[in-house]
Amino acid sequence: MSCSITLKKLSYKNEANELFKNIDLNVGHEEKVAIIGANGAGKSTLLKIIAGLNFCFEGELQLFHNPIKNKKEYEKFRSDVGYLPQDVNDYFLCPTVIEDVMFNLRAKGEAKEEAYHKAILMLEELGISHLKDRIIYELSGGEQKIVALAGILITKPKILLLDEPTNALDTQAENRIIEILNSIKKSMIIVSHHKSFIDKLAPTIYNLSCNELELI
Ligand SMILES: Nc1ncnc2c1ncn2[C@@H]1O[C@H](COP(=O)(O)OP(=O)(O)OP(=O)(O)O)[C@@H](O)[C@H]1O
Ligand SMILES: [Mg+2]
């Protein structure tokens, strides 16, 4: 199988606890995988490792069959990975919604008019056109989450790592996200506590519990 993400015997300890031990995981090309688990089980920590934000692990992380041990080795894959953190508070770089959604495209060298046009379409697709000129830090938690998702989806990464993408969203916004994510053919890991959300999205579900990743 062609794998986008592979974990081999991945173990991680923080100062207080061993969070996981000898975890194996394969996420295939365009496969959608969900991870559930109790508060504090280590789901966000695991996603941060796969997102290249923490290299203090033992075992192996591979992206597209390339072993990655440190930040330098991760760099050439960074633009292939779209990571939505659980807490988007410190996530935004621009004052307004439209500027922030355009930002990653502009950073890749895209012309301003083209980036603006794509950002407008992205906001429409996510049903948040009315937020276009709002100051991000004046938005609600759910609005911020969906703006952050727009900024990720617009760059069309090959891998999506989504940490509780719907935890602050109303039913209408959640259904829109389900529809969009279902229409996207990418490798995805989705962490969520919402079983009904996951059931509509990811055929493969793992439970992170007692240091192990168990297929359910
Ligand atoms: N930066 C940090 N420094 C020290 N401990 C941390 C840090 N980040 C997380 N932890 C601890 O690691 C453990 C796992 O945290 P993590 O955020 O990965 O859990 P989670 O499964 O995502 O939980 P939740 O469902 O509440 O989001 C927790 O006990 C947490 O307190
Ligand atoms: Mg978490």
**Unreliable stretches:** none
CATH superfamily placement: P-loop containing nucleotide triphosphate hydrolases
**Can you give the helix content as a percent range?**
25-40%
User: What CATH architecture label applies?
Assistant: 3-Layer(aba) Sandwich
Radius of gyration from the alpha-carbon trace, in angstroms: 17 Å
| Distinct small-molecule ligands in the complex | adenosine-5'-triphosphate, magnesium ion
Helix count? 7
How many structural domains are formed by the residues? 1
Terminal residue distance: 21 Å
Mean pLDDT: 94
H-E order:
EEEHEEHEHHHEHEHEE
Strand order of the largest sheet: 6-7-8-3-9-10
Beta-strand portion reads: 25-35%
- Give the CATH level 1 class: Alpha Beta
CATH topology tier name: Rossmann fold
- Please report the total strand number as a whole number: 10
The major beta sheet can be summarized as:
6 strands, mixed
Structural class: alpha/beta
How would the global form be characterised?
A: globular
Please give a structural write-up:
The chain is an alpha/beta fold. Helices cover 31% and strands 28% of the residues. The chain has helices at 43-50, 71-74, 97-107, 112-125, 141-153, 171-183, 195-199, and strands spanning 3-13, 18-28, 32-36, 58-63, 66-68, 81-84, 159-163, 187-191, 204-209, 212-215. α6 links the parallel β7 and β8. The two termini are 21 Å apart. The model has no long low-confidence stretch (mean pLDDT 94). Magnesium ion binds next to α1. The site of magnesium ion (MG) has 4 residues, from α1.
